[in-house]
């Protein structure tokens, strides 16, 4: 059996910076990704590494948050509605009873409690692996404050720029750090750079970063 000895390697990914007016033209200068990977540990032994993180993230996003108030949660008086005997009615001990109008709810939903820990180091490594996997489909675009946004139709402008680059609108595109624009584009997800999930990087075909 041949032992493969692979140490930690540093990768430098160089990307040209593009104008927002014309995504084909380049600005003088490059955008550099500095990636540090332990190839032996993560690239060859990550069969369930990313899938476990994505499953936990999806569970956190879809966990049940609906909640009802039972008879112990209702803020109401503890006074007995009427005396125990002599009225002819069924005995009642509280206005909070589920039988009464305005009382508590039984068998309703409650928020689920799920305790687990996602280490920041593991999250960072998973995102680095996915960025390295999508390295051929990353675009860096420079935004300018002097750009006349009012005179342009953003949907039409971005549509033309994507078609000029040979990117079809049916493909899934992830926009990073562009949450302050009101894009209404099909199959395009806009997300802040501080709120990127591993599932966003995995399930999108192209990544466009505004700087």
From TrEMBL:
SUPFAM superfamilies given in the database record: Ribosomal protein L4
Q: Which UniProt keywords apply?
A: Ribonucleoprotein, Ribosomal protein
Q: Which GO terms describe its cellular component?
A: ribonucleoprotein complex; ribosome
Write out the GO MF terms.
Answer: structural constituent of ribosome
Coiled coil spans: none
An annotated GO BP: translation
Q: Which residues cross the membrane?
A: none
Similarity section: Belongs to the universal ribosomal protein uL4 family.
Which PANTHER family would you find in this protein's record?
Answer: 50S RIBOSOMAL PROTEIN L4, LARGE RIBOSOMAL SUBUNIT PROTEIN UL4M
What name has this protein been given in UniProt?
Large ribosomal subunit protein uL4m
Q: Which organism is it from?
A: Nephromyces sp. ex Molgula occidentalis
